[in-house]
């Protein structure tokens, strides 16, 4: 009887102690698993915060940071490499990299906490909580310091300081979720000693259920992250690079809002909430100030036709359009604040998406820059920068920022995305375009040749047309002038007398008497130059 009792398994039996190699293997394995699930939970948190509070996610901020620290040549190579998904693919890779780093940090966490296996109980010890807290604070501090220039953006249009605070707080929440989840999950996944009077079979079943539960949590987190990512991509700015719609062969003088060219740097454009948005005027002005949207519209306003052209617009291109913009001039706005202080040399425009443009204050005032809230009689469309965008005649579109939220006068140049990469930062080049005819024309017929010319804020004084590839030139007639800041329409009557192939070209002279150059220059990085040429068959 005694022998029989001795052979029974004790009810409080514990699993055998693991060898050092076995303990390292199990700790590493469960550390990686806990790190992966904690990373997925952090991704879900980031997605929720983006949709609820408009805070940018760390992968987005990382992308913005990288773009500011590469040159234009590298930027173009990356665009080509990731084409046709040149925005979403890098963002996806950044997200996967973040998850991978979070997974590896689980291994680092396991090494730092050094829990003896089998572990006692499911509750993390003090050392585990301290390490998790330190990891949370270290990751938060790294994000805040590394992305210091990027955190001021907000999808819903919070002012710069509030956007910075909310984004920094989002960092803390993201990484706190990661740290707490890592701490709890790692302890739950570890092999445990049996509780007092607990049978070995019960202990094993409890451990198995814990791990099944963790696997389910991981799947749910992955599904949640995928769902939030799909929701994010549903707002993807797929319209980037849309050209101005042409009406048959002839360009209309005023481009409709839904036909105007659009370029955006964003994967998802901001969608400002007008109740949160503010326009701030500060820096080296006599008196700073802040405006709501209603208050902005009560400022003295003016309307003017202004042409916008993208720096990527080549000869004959349609990445340009003209609208009637209504808003307050920068000069008038600064007068409302007592004017600029004597030491002010530059003006910096900040957008709610983190985009920044800085230009010499004197040049911007001379160009009579406009801060517009209406486009062709309607509120500025969201894709064009609602609730307010900057129009600086004579500058390429990239220096006419959308979604404006702050105007700051400084005594120095403030870097931005394109200027940091090394793109051209000066007055746009003169351009002229032949819109018609196309294809073939009849010998001896009277043919109207027509198109547009644009010289920025320097107006258009003259347009010439050549039918022999620029060897001789003929004066065209300027037909439509909208304003000194808009394109000009021109026509020329041609009666070809002989059949053959003709190369038509055009060039303009601006209000300063400067003639458009025929030197061919690509769009990257200084903007294109050269004549627009069209080949016509005369039959």
TrEMBL record:
InterPro entries per the UniProt record, alphabetical: Ig_E-set (IPR014756), MoCF_OxRdtse_dimer (IPR005066), OxRdtase_Mopterin-bd_dom (IPR000572), OxRdtase_Mopterin-bd_sf (IPR036374)
One of the protein's GO biological processes: sulfur compound metabolic process
Residue stretches making up the Moybdenum cofactor oxidoreductase dimerisation domain: 445-491
Keyword set, alphabetical order: Membrane, Transmembrane, Transmembrane helix
TM stretches of this protein: 21-52, 91-117, 129-148, 160-186, 212-233
Keyword Membrane listed: yes
UniProt-listed Pfam families: Mo-co_dimer, Oxidored_molyb
Name used for this protein in its record: Oxidoreductase molybdopterin binding
């Amino acid at each position: 009887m005694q022998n029989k009792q001795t052979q029974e398994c004790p009810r409080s039996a514990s699993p055998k102690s693991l060898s050092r190699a076995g303990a390292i293997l199990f700790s590493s394995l469960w550390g990686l698993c806990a790190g992966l699930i904690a990373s997925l939970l952090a991704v879900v948190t980031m997605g929720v915060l983006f949709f609820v509070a408009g805070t940018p996610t760390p992968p987005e901020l990382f992308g913005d940071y990288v773009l500011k620290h590469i040159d234009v040549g590298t930027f173009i190579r990356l665009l080509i490499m990731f084409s046709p998904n040149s925005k979403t693919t890098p963002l996806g890779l950044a997200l996967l990299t973040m998850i991978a780093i979070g997974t590896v940090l689980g291994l680092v966490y396991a090494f730092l906490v050094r829990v003896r296996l089998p572990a006692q109980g499911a509750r993390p010890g003090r050392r585990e909580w301290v390490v998790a807290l330190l990891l949370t604070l270290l990751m938060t501090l790294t994000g805040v310091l590394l992305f210091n220039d990027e955190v001021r953006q907000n999808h819903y249009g919070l002012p710069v300081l509030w956007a910075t605070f909310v984004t920094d707080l989002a960092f803390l929440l993201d990484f706190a979720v990661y740290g707490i989840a890592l701490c709890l999950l790692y302890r739950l996944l570890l092999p445990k000693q049996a509780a007092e009077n607990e049978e070995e079979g019960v202990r094993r079943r409890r451990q198995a259920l814990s791990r099944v539960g963790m696997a389910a949590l991981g799947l749910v987190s992955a599904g949640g992250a995928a769902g939030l990512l799909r929701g994010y991509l549903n707002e993807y700015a797929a319209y980037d690079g849309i050209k101005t719609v042409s009406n048959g062969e002839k360009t209309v003088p005023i481009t409709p809002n839904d036909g105007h060219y659009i370029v955006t740097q964003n994967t998802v454009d901001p969608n400002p909430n007008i109740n949160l948005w503010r326009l701030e005027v500060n820096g080296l002005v006599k008196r700073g100030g802040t405006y709501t949207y209603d208050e902005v519209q009560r400022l003295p306003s003016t309307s003017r036709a202004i042409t916008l052209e993208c720096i990527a617009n080549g000869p004959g291109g349609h990445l340009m359009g003209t609208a009637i913009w209504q808003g307050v001039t920068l000069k008038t706005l600064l007068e409302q604040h007592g004017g600029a202080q004597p030491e002010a040399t530059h003006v910096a425009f900040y957008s709610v998406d983190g985009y920044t443009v800085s230009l010499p204050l004197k040049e911007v005032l001379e160009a009579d820059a406009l801060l517009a809230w209406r486009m062709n009689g309607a509120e500025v469309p969201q894709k064009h920068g609602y609730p307010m965008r900057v129009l600086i005649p004579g500058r390429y579109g990239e220096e006419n920022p959308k979604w404006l939220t702050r105007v700051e006068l400084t005594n120095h140049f403030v870097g931005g995305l394109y200027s940091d990469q090394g793109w051209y930062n000066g007055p746009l080049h003169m351009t002229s375009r032949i819109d018609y005819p196309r294809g073939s024309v009849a010998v001896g017929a009277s043919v109207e040749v027509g198109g547009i010319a644009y010289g920025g804020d320097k107006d258009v004084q003259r347009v010439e047309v050549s039918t022999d590839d620029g060897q001789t030139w003929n004066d065209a007639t300027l037909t439509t002038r909208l304003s000194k800041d808009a394109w000009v329409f021109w026509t020329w009557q041609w009666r070809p007398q002989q059949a053959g192939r003709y190369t038509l070209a055009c060039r303009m002279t601006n209000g300063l008497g400067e003639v458009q150059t025929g030197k061919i220059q690509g769009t990257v990085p200084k903007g294109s130059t050269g004549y627009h040429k069209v080949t016509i068959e005369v039959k």
